[in-house]
Write a structure and sequence with these properties.
heterotrimer, A alpha/beta, B mainly alpha, C alpha/beta, A: alpha/beta, Rossmann fold, six-stranded mixed sheet, four-stranded antiparallel sheet, 25 helices, B: mainly alpha, ABC transporter involved in vitamin B12 uptake, BtuC, two-stranded antiparallel ribbon, 75% helix, globular
């Protein structure tokens, strides 16, 4: 995540060393670390420690894979050791029992793991909380039971032995050769996740985790994203499992039980679930602790439990987070009252200009009931392009419900909504967003820790992104798209007059600015209709002025705007057309001057 | 097949007790106490120690076992409940799991790792035959106890003022304080009821599973799974979930062989959750994103 | 700001140093034991450890070996063979044990033996119930442990198989002998070796039934055995499964003699069988009698059971003979180290040349350069379960 230079407080010592050397201090560290790891076998020749190092590295990869789903996606998975086990056993069985060449068995095993991850994603897509956790545990148990149920293949009771080792052009990999292979695998997985972290995929995933509804309305398929995270995660952890099977040469099914998945989760939590190196550090710690305890297993488990408790309750950002806080002790915070400049909006697009005289949105006799309550009753209205159409009414009139029906969150119980002629029937909100409907929300729905520009990218992602494979591999397309998306985000911010706050974590902006940023974000889906839900609430006078100007500029591009608002002065000053709802029924419609005099409207607001 | 059905109802009844324990704590405090499985183990082991090693009469040992289980559960409550209620569900899950781990490890230190067989309290006197199954006094008494307990708890939850207070606590803990319900006391009652259910479950399970420190984990997990199956937000659905889980597990063993019964039952659970994300009768209350 | 971070780094580094220093070896003789010490088969491993603990206590009471104390490092593998291998690696490469005692359980022994062989550390098999040695030791054909580094104190299954068949035929007067065995490695090995031994002794089994280890009701198999008119039933399995066969036989009213292999001496047989398995026969090359004639052995059993009552046993000979086999093995090793020092190769050579050694139970162990199986000369003895005790049959 990019942070404004003013907020980076790095130690001056490292900066001066690297400046003198002429390289980025981070690359220097990386090179030194790699050299260190490569020379480790020469220092530690003891096979026992070597094996533990390799096991730790593989669990580090596994924990990293889990952190994609849990740390980034916010989806708890207690079934990842099942995926690890699938990778390990498939590769072992194919190479040992069916005599396949090891490298083919490995590849097939990784593919099967990915498939299993897909299945897991599908079965858990609609679940949250403890139900989600339980289904992943169930998955893990099923995998572990399946391993036991085929003793001819898996020698489940005694454990599988004599698994062939990896064979590279005749060189049989022993413990030491595996070290280098595993080190390579670890570095590759770090590279892939690093690429992910710097792409807009990461930004959209953050949005998925923190504000899933907003993510959906910005044109991103939330279920699709969850599946993607699971599959990528499964492929990585399956790969680790494969290496584990062939390095160890033996497998026991109780290495892959659901309580081992809990241990893996603990590794992620311990090291820092959103850090790149966090999971590896957590893995190293939890794997190496037993070395110091030797046979005192009972005491060791107590230590495990206490460590877990500490990091869950006291420092939820994990060890790396804790170290990072020490490093950035003097994190500079925005001094109160810093004024962010609003420049005159110059927003201009050509996709919405010209020709189209049809209504952008036609709401035809829409009825919506929730249980016993009828929220909307036979409501019809029409939103014309290039117009600011206000939707007003007392609290509870059904305004937000109507917007939710238009944007596809609720299917209508009666009637239909047509967007540029296409019915919304059966369409998910993200598809409707891509038909050209952008919206903001009553409650702020930006990801606080991301910058303004990064939040913009959540809505641009569907248009300017590299495929997940290009991203993970760091192909040129990934870099191009990164630059393109960032550049468009900045341009958009400039166009709406918010460029000054581009690199500030949006959570630090004043409330009014956040509302303006939400509007800017919604423009990212290239909407023909922009829906703004109570945009004027809590705005300072300067921000209110900017809002008016912005909406007018947007309108002048031919984009229709639907505004829900309670602030009558504001509505009267910008609206071209007003629809009034009361108790789910449209009671009036017309130009502002008419509505102001309408008796039904007055009655609704003032009561009878 | 009738033997499997019968065996399934027996284990289902035990699962129902455990599921109910989870449900009572969850519906009152919104927290899942994953240490319940290990509490069952503690109850069994303390009772066993009292009767087999110290020579106490079984009832006294049972009372001591119950008391210690209740005590440990209260310690967990005092140490962590308010913290847990503020955390997201998964962190809370991990925290209580860690408590469970501490209990198992502590148990290992106290009782060692080898097991022994748990005396059958109600005697294994054969009573009558059901197909090729010999039904013993143990089985009948198990059924009676389970039915009575479930009935009593249901009565408390739906009739007594206590039950209504617990429902109120589930909705809004602070509001309860305002209307004069002592939240701390209500929560403690919920925890104690769960601990007592754990002790009863322990006594019914231990003769089958033996007396060793590992008996709690799987029972705790399956009881939880059963509760989820039925729906954790409602005591009755948790009970029914327990029965369904037990019977389904037993019948899978009958039709597909004993080795596959666990994989089948958990696949079934996954399918049911995919169709009904909060369990068969659970409500989508208090669902925070994990 | 930098101070706090530097402070954290310093603390971390110091902690690492302390932990590393803690691993620096002291002047001790370490021996390693890997066995199953938890779960339903915990008795096997706990027994082994108890036997070794007693021996080591006696050795250290005499001042240790050449002035150095002996330390036993025991690891519980809980039947997980991968864990067993890792633990063996730990004891050998990290703790640097001078000798390693693999598990009583075949699977784990097959996992840890090769680790010893690769590292060049003597592996002393106290009491394997299954063949895990190679032609070097005179019997069996399992290549994993084919090595001069492996020594076996307990008799092998194939050796016992021969004795068992002879006993069934001659002492129990079996003319139509039926065989039952479980479906795990142990039972399958018994089947293989018993079939070979039968052929060698011109005996043919009239029925051969395999059953799942955890099977509760053996009516179908036993019905087939009855239909084959068997007059002696030989069973190759562990204690609890053997008990379930015994119980089914009682339920069916079968009167044929039941002849069990050595493993059924474990307590689980008598606690699971009706009437504590009254009347069942069992063979063993060890002195498994509950009423040993040797006063020294009787004294050993009394002090052993008094000391180890807390692991649930009240009479040492109600358990499997692992305790005193490991006891004997440890004393044997101590003698070798006393004479030849701690070097691995010297220990190996010393084991071969020590000569006949009389164990506490009265059994004499003999190793030689081409025989690493110290019990290969012992004949199988016949015992019977009477009132819960194991009584020799004359």
């Amino acid at each position: 995540m990019s942070v404004h230079p003013a907020y980076q407080a790095e130690s001056s010592l490292w900066r001066s060393i690297s400046q003198r050397a002429g390289v980025s201090w981070r690359s220097l560290w990386i090179v030194l670390a790699i050299i260190g790891f490569l020379s480790l076998p020469a220092v530690i020749s003891n096979p026992y420690y070597m094996r533990f190092l390799e096991i730790a590295a593989l669990y580090g990869i596994a924990a990293l894979a889990l952190s994609l789903v849990y740390g980034k996606g916010g989806i708890v998975s207690l079934g990842h050791m099942g995926l690890f086990g699938i990778g390990a056993y498939i590769s072992a069985v194919l190479s040992l029992k069916f005599g396949w060449p090891v490298w083919i068995a490995m590849i097939v095993a990784v593919v099967v793991s990915g498939f299993a991850g897909w299945l897991l994603a599908l079965s858990s897509a609609r679940l949250v909380g403890v139900y989600l956790a339980m289904t992943t545990v169930a998955f893990n148990i099923v995998v572990e039971r399946l391993i036991v149920q085929f003793p001819d293949l898996t020698d489940a009771a005694a454990g599988m032995i004599n698994i062939p080792t990896f064979d590279l052009f005749g060189h049989l990999f022993d413990l030491e050769s595996f070290y280098y292979l595993i080190l390579l695998a670890w570095l590759v997985s770090l590279y892939m996740v690093h690429n992910f972290n710097t792409s807009s995929w990461n930004l959209v995933t953050n949005s998925l985790r923190e504000t899933p509804t907003a993510c959906l309305f910005m044109g991103n398929s939330v279920p699709g994203l969850k599946v993607l995270l699971f599959v990528v995660s499964a492929i990585i952890i399956g790969g680790a499992g494969v290496l584990f099977a062939h390095m160890m040469g033996r497998l026991n099914y109780n290495n892959f039980t659901w309580d081992q998945s809990v241990v893996l989760l603990a590794m992620v939590v311990l090291g820092g679930k959103r850090e790149l190196l966090g999971p590896s550090m957590g893995a190293a710690i939890l794997i190496f602790i037993p070395i110091f305890f030797g046979g005192l297993v009972e005491y060791m488990n107590i230590v495990y439990a206490l460590i877990l408790l500490f990091f869950l309750l006291v420092t939820p950002t994990g060890i790396i987070g804790w170290i990072r806080r020490g490093w950035n002790q003097a994190r500079v915070f925005l001094p109160q009252g810093r004024e962010w400049k609003l420049t005159h909006p110059v927003y201009s697009v050509n996709y919405a200009r010209g020709g189209d005289t049809r209504p952008i949105v036609e709401v035809v006799n829409v009825t919506k009931t929730f249980g016993g309550l009828t929220a909307l009753r036979n409501v019809s209205l029409s939103i014309q392009p290039g117009q600011i159409h206000a939707l007003i009414g007392p609290n509870g009139a059904g305004k937000t419900t109507l917007v939710n029906v238009i944007t596809g969150l609720y299917p209508p119980d009666g009637g239909d909504v047509r967007i540029r002629g296409t019915s919304v029937h059966g369409k998910t909100p993200d598809k409707i967003a891509l038909l050209g409907v952008g919206r903001t929300f009553q409650q702020p729905s930006l990801v606080a820790e991301m910058t303004t520009a990064e939040n913009m990218q959540v809505a641009i992602h569907h248009r300017l992104r590299a495929g997940i494979v290009s991203t993970l591999l760091g192909l040129p397309r990934h870099h191009r798209m990164r630059a393109a998306a960032r550049s468009e985000a900045l341009d958009s911010l400039h166009a709406v007059g918010l460029a000054d706050a581009a690199n500030v974590p949006v959570g630090q902006l004043p409330h009014g600015y956040q509302r303006l940023v939400e509007i800017a974000r919604a423009l990212g889906v290239h909407p023909r209709l922009l829906i703004v839900d109570e945009p004027a609430a809590g705005l300072a006078p300067k921000e209110m002025e900017h809002l008016q100007r912005l909406l007018q500029v947007i309108r002048s591009n031919g984009i229709a705007i639907l505004v829900i608002e309670h602030n009558m002065e504001f509505i009267m000053s910008i609206a071209d057309w007003i629809s009034v709802l009361d108790f789910g029924v449209r009671i009036a419609e017309g130009i502002p001057a008419e509505i102001q005099r309408n008796e039904a409207v007055l009655a609704a607001y003032l009561g009878e | 097949m009738i033997e499997s059905l019968f065996a399934g109802l027996l284990t289902g009844g035990i699962y129902a007790l455990v599921a109910l324990a989870y449900s009572i704590i969850y519906t009152t405090t919104r927290v899942v106490n994953f240490a319940i499985g290990e509490l069952i183990m503690i109850a069994a082991m303390v009772t066993f120690t009292g009767s087999a090693l110290w020579g106490l009469p079984l009832i006294s040992a049972l009372v001591i076992g119950c008391a210690i289980t209740v005590l440990i559960n209260l310690v967990i409550k005092a140490a962590a409940l308010s913290r847990l209620q503020k955390l997201d569900p998964i962190t809370a899950l991990l925290v209580t799991l860690s408590f469970g781990l501490l209990l198992v490890t502590g148990g290992q230190l106290v009782w060692g790792t080898a097991g022994a067989s748990f005396p059958s309290i109600f005697g294994k006197i054969p009573l009558f035959n059901l197909g090729s199954l010999i039904v013993t006094t143990q089985d009948i008494v198990t059924i009676i106890i389970v039915v009575v307990i479930l009935f009593v708890v249901d009565l408390i939850q739906h009739r007594a003022i206590l039950g209504k207070s617990m429902q109120a606590a589930a909705e809004d803990q602070e509001a309860c304080g305002v209307v004069g319900i002592n939240i701390g006391w209500i929560n403690a009652v919920a925890f104690n009821m769960a601990a007592i259910l754990c002790t009863i479950a322990a006594v019914l399970i231990a003769p089958i599973a033996g007396a060793n420190v590992r008996i709690g984990t799987m029972v705790g997990l399956k009881g939880f799974a059963a509760g989820i199956l039925g729906g954790l937000t409602n005591g009755r659905s948790a009970i029914v979930g327990g029965l369904i889980f037990g019977v389904a597990e037993s019948l899978s063993g009958y039709f597909f062989g004993g080795e596959s019964k666990e994989s089948i039952i958990f696949v079934v659970l996954m399918i049911i959750l995919a169709i009904r994300p909060t369990g068969l009768w659970g409500e989508a209350r208090w669902q925070r994103e994990a | 700001m930098e101070e706090t971070f530097k402070g954290k780094i310093i603390v971390f580094a110091v902690a690492c140093c302390v932990l590393l220093l803690a691993g620096i070896a002291k002047a001790e003789i370490k021996v390693g034991l890997g066995n199953v010490m938890s779960g339903p088969f915990a008795a096997w491993g706990l027994d082994a450890k108890a036997g070794m603990d007693m021996a080591i206590e006696e050795i250290n009471a005499q001042g240790g070996i050449n002035g150095e104390k002996v330390v036993l490092l025991a690891r519980d593998d809980a039947l997980d063979t991968t864990k067993a291998a890792l633990q063996a690696e730990e004891l050998i490469y990290k703790e640097k044990v001078v000798a390693y005692f693999p598990s009583t359980i075949t699977g784990s022994a097959k996992a840890t033996g090769p680790v010893c062989i690769k590292a060049g550390v003597p592996a002393l098999l106290g009491a394997q119930q299954s063949d895990v040695t190679c032609p070097l030791t005179g019997v069996g054909d399992k290549p994993e442990l084919c090595s001069p580094w492996v020594f076996r104190f307990g008799a092998t299954v194939s050796q016992q198989a021969d004795g068992l068949v002879k006993i069934a035929r001659d002492r129990l007067k079996g003319k139509r002998i039926a065989l039952m065995h479980d479906n795990i490695g142990y039972g399958l090995e018994w089947k293989e070796d018993l079939t070979k031994a039968a052929a060698n002794n011109k005996v043919q089994f009239v029925a051969s039934e395999m059953f799942p280890l955890m099977e509760l009701d053996h009516t179908p198999s036993l019905t087939r055995v009855i239909n084959a008119n068997a007059d002696v039933i030989v069973v190759g399995t562990l204690g609890a499964p053997a008990a379930r066969i015994y119980n089914t036989m009682r339920k069916l009213g079968m009167k044929q003699p039941l002849l069990l292999c050595e493993a059924a001496i474990e307590l689980a047989f008598r606690t699971t069988a009706v009437d504590m398995g009254e009347g069942a026969y069992i063979t063993s090359p060890q002195n498994s009698s509950s009423v040993p004639k040797d006063p020294k052995f009787a004294e050993f059993t009394r002090s052993w059971s008094a000391k180890y009552k807390n692991i649930g046993y009240t009479d040492v000979l109600t358990t499997i003979p692992t305790a005193f086999q490991y006891y004997d093995a440890m004393h044997y090793l101590a003698l070798v180290i006393k004479q030849h020092g701690k070097d691995a190769k010297k220990i190996r050579d010393g084991m071969e040349t020590l000569g006949p050694y009389k164990g506490i139970s009265g059994v004499t162990y003999i190793f030689s350069k081409d025989n690493h199986n110290a019990s290969s000369h012992l004949p199988s003895q016949l015992f019977r379960f009477q009132k819960g005790k194991v009584m020799p049959v004359e």
